[in-house]
Amino acid sequence: MLRRRTIMVTAGITLSSLLVILGIWAHSFSLIPDLFRLNKECQEEGYYMAEFEFKMLGFAYDLDKGQYEKAVSSIRKYHKQLKARQGLIKLPAFTDKKQEMDFYLNLQNPKTGAFMDDAAPYCTYEGPTGNVLLLLDALAKETGQPMQLKYPLTFFDAINTPEKLTAYLDDLANIGWLAAKLPESSFHMVRDLAGYSRDDDIVNKYHLYTFSPEWKQALLKWLYDNQDPQTGFWGPRSRFSGKLLKLDLHNTGSIVKAFVDNNGNDRHVLFPLRYKDKMFANTLLVMAEPPPDISDLDEWHGWTLRTGKGVSLLTRYLWKGVSRENKEKARKSFETFVRVRFEKYYLSDQGAFCYYPGSLQATLDGTGSAMGFFENIGAFVPEKQRRLWGGVEETCVDLGSFSIKTLTEKDFDPIMAQGAINSVRFYSGSPDSMNFMAKVQNIWYPRNTQMLDIVDLVPRVKNWVNTTTQSMGNWTSREETEADLADVKIEPVSVSKGDVPLEKLAELLRVHKTVTVIGFDVLQIPRCKMVFRLSDS
């Protein structure tokens, strides 16, 4: 009886301890969504947060490998650190680009060469390192300094042979049931390595580390062999069944660059891109998923990444030879995304975009990803717009040319009858059909809309980028964003809303004798055109 009671007491204590442990774990996992909130706040307050996304991936990796205590302890510790802003690096107000470059060079870890905390799992080292190298490359070009690091990238030594690399990729790509439940897995680090197969990658270009031809060939072969023939996607697989666990658009959108260039041409004779039709269809399928609840910042983080990757995957790498039907499906999907971009992310008082809906501060990640989206759909890249949607003769209805003495609102009825029109641009004389962003005199929004014309938007964004004190977000730098917009030559113009700006148009007609009016949809595609000439009689 005594022995039975002892066993029951022992079992009770064990069960109580287990419940306490489970309670601690449950509470720790509940901190993950709050970490995204803290990441948002820290970015807005000007802290260096380039490690954040990869710290989160490190937690997922430890959980997948059964290192539960380490993962739970790391999550709790990181949450405490972000909440107290303890040990975080506040980005200074740089006096010049050289000082900024020196600041980032000093973040390199002398033991590993990585731009990452060496307490994190090894697999997290490459991601933030690659992002900081992009920034340093841009700063080197601006300052005229050589692209030279303080320490060698010795962390690559751990995977510097084809055999080591293949084993490492297998370890990252095959995951268990717990990791499969998380929004992102260690497979993210597979895609981070994919770029090193290309000679134009920063590490290869500046000889920061030497990957042998055999190593690059092994990388390409592994990626080629691990593309899923049923979906066309790459992604994590079950380590038990070997089956693809999800349609991983985020990582597929990056890995594809190892196989095709920005125009969809194959890079390698031995490794042509396969299953393009399946990739296109499944990309549209993933992009059709509705936005998450406004409070789920971790879900928004992933949704925005996936959708942005989907746009670039379709327009850069899969558009070549696409059917008219699929083009139309993609266009409708892009229209939805541009509406969400402006409704949830655009901060009109700052003229730029946040990354998390509900934020009060625009960020580099939010603005950089938004402008990347507009670039991918050809909104401010005329050559790309024609490649995606066709020339003006295919997209724009000619509503006629009219000789008039005085303009009236009724003259614009044909444009108002075009339901797809979001904004209207007024040009002096005849616009350049190869560049509808030039010679714009006024922008008119005939209907209530939150979506800006690109000629209205770009000067606002440039002003924010030029004046922000932010230097680097989770992965986007100010230098990269500035460089991406440097060739976009758009001058600020006056803006009208509601009624037709007849007085302004009358003045334009008086001065220029001819005014061309072109209506644009939300993707900045020209949809209709009218010409008004001042009558002499």
TrEMBL record:
Protein name according to UniProt: Uncharacterized protein
